[in-house]
Amino acid sequence: MFSREVLVQQVVDNQNWDVIVIGGGATGLGVALDSVTRGFKTLLLEQSDFAKGTSSRSTKLVHGGVRYLAQGNIDLVKEALYERGLMLKNASHLIKNQSFIIPNYSWWDTILYTVGLKVYDLLAGKLSFGASIRISKKKTSKRLSTIQTKHLKGGVVYHDGQFDDARLAVNIAQTCIEQGATALNHFKVCKLLKTKEGKVSGVMAKDAEGGVEYQLNAKVVINATGVFTDEILQMDKFDAKNTVRPSQGIHLVLDRSFLPGDDAIMIPKTTDGRVLFLVPWHNRVVVGTTDTLLDSHSLEPKPLEKEIDFILETANAYLNKTVSRSDVLSIFAGLRPLAAPKDASEKTKEISRSHKIIVSESGLMTITGGKWTTYRRMAQDTINKAIALGKLSHKNCRTKDLRIHGADGSAEATNHLYIYGTDQKAIELLIADTPELAEKLHPRLEFLKAEVVWAVTNEMARTVEDVLARRVRILFLDAKAAQEVAPYVAHVLAQYLNKPQTWESAQIKEFTQLANQYII
């Protein structure tokens, strides 16, 4: 079902579609899933890999957004908290209830956050992850053994969601295919097709692997390309104004010893006005994020020195265990597709994260803004809009209770394979059949050789980067180790994809260069 040959053949056999979605991040995948489950013939095309951009580079949180509450954006928070509850229910293997502690260093902050988070609890309603409580200095320092205790007054505990972003994207892509959609990575849209009247009627797209171009017709074309939104809008109208301004956020990944307990830390006030999180993730700690407006965007954004310094300085102001550059296992940067500020003085932290649907004169539909937590609602609104415009027949949304591929809340988190949910059993069968696949990929990592085989045979991985960045998350967890296992991964891929030695060597070289950007 997930074979590229089968999926490409579907494109060869079908030139006419109801919906073509451009972009395979959280937004595009959500739109494709909403579309296909309503019964529309759906094609999703991603120029690189699923979640290659912003959607694999988040802070790993499924949350309402405490800072949006502080800004008074009640509707956005309420919507996100509702969607957070649905995500926990529908992708139970990847979303978990995470306790956060806000350390308080003034009595006023204690009162402010205690009251504010009670409002947060109320907005979550029946889908609450747990009530927030105030805790003493003694309890705060016991639960956060590495927290700075000088002037500490206590803490406020609240609950939010934590998840694996890229793995959820891959599972949504699988769900789309299981429901009858065609979803292809490494398949770039090069041009929009138009009628004599100037209406968008489809796309020209090129298979990056086969090099073949396809002309594909559709009743509606949806631009869900995040920071690349304007490139598609300019395919439609060459002088279209920029609607998106990328804001860069970086994250540092540290050893678990910097946050050894079960709780995450939320630091609500930093010098750049954003909150800073320290979140347990795959037995490491993700620390971030920054907020730097950029004038350009790329598939592989680079962290800036000032961003690295900012995170290290802020973390060290709150921790009693000093973090230095040598402690950083991996560093990754992501771009937020924020609405372009109306003037240069507008701060990105003040730009609303609410999503927006744009309908061009040509009929091209664009969905921008939003965040991972609200991906399902964004998709629902987008397809509802297409129906309201008369592009599609009226059919109700069916994703509210739809389980995502792998959903299983019974897996034991003690075994790292739990993130595969119901697929865990299939991976264990692979190992039973070929016992050497039980070997670790790297002596200091928990990941197994079987996971590489699974990624290429069942999760549409096509390159070493696809495997080590977004299926088996080693690049994001330990970049040097990722470089060391790249030759093995390239060899497995070459075997299963029937690639020559030259391809294998090129993959190792390419990935090694890429991984250098993840090492300080």
From TrEMBL:
Biological processes annotated in GO: glycerol metabolic process; glycerol-3-phosphate catabolic process
One Gene Ontology molecular-function label: glycerol-3-phosphate dehydrogenase (quinone) activity
Cofactor(s), names only, from the UniProt record: FAD
InterPro entries: DAO_C, DAO_C_sf, FAD-dep_OxRdtase, FAD/NAD-bd_sf, G3P_DH_FAD-dep
A Pfam cross-reference name: DAO_C
Domain FAD dependent oxidoreductase positions: 18-376
Protein name: Glycerol-3-phosphate dehydrogenase/oxidase
Lineage, broadest ranks: Bacteria, Pseudomonadati, Bacteroidota, Flavobacteriia, Flavobacteriales
